[in-house]
Amino acid sequence: MPPRSPGVSQTDVVVQSIRQMIIEGRLRPGDRLPVEKDLAAAFGVSRNPLREGVRALSMMGVLETRQGDGTYVTNLDPSMLLVPMGFVVDLHDGSGTVHLHAVRRILETEAAAVAALQIGTAALEAAAELLRLNEAELTLDEPNHETVIENDIAFHRIIAEASGNPVLAALIDALGGRTMRDRLRRSISQPGADETAHREHLSILAALTAHQPDRARIQMAAHLFTVEDYLRERDTLNPITN
Predict the structure, then answer these.
(1) Fewer Cβ neighbours under 10 Å: the N or C end of the chain?
(2) Nearest Cα to 184, choosing from 224, 142, 137, 144?
(3) DSSP state letter for 57
(4) What is the pLDDT of residues 65-108, one digit of tens each?
């Protein structure tokens, strides 16, 4: 092992060393880690920091400890590895929500364009069914806003997954939690917001059905700019003070 940099804990050494082993191909998805004693000796650390490092990597979705069978490298699926990002997004200070949403908008507009080229019949039907459910919900005297938003999120997830890029889909999903709650506040505070979003979703679906990438990109951008404008207006009227 190379000499440890000043200020780097033994736990950090474990995390960085296992990370390097994976990057270099010495550990591959599905591989079992060496026994604890050998690994601690190889890293030059004691067993407690080794266990802490393994626990940290397990929380990140990099490792998986199987009771009585040892610790293994996971399949390193992007959707699993990006779960902690969603947690970070949820904890992010409210003043940064508009910036998070801007990133989501950039990702989703391109996802929609790519999806328009290759989305299949089953995905289109599933997306259409979600919009039919929302249309029925919105005709009620007191529609359930959470149900509407959950269907909205599922609609966007179908499009992201139809892009065929699991990393892109995972990033979009990770950014959806925080913005979902802001959409909930918007739907309650702004009359007609749910109906507007529904019409925009119908336009997006029409572009996807027609397999028109430029149109899908534009419709998705217009839809998400509506939400972004609301967030900017909210921050202007109710600035967050630290």
Answers:
(1) C
(2) 144
(3) H
(4) 888 888 999 988 876 776 666 666 666 555 567 788 888 899 99
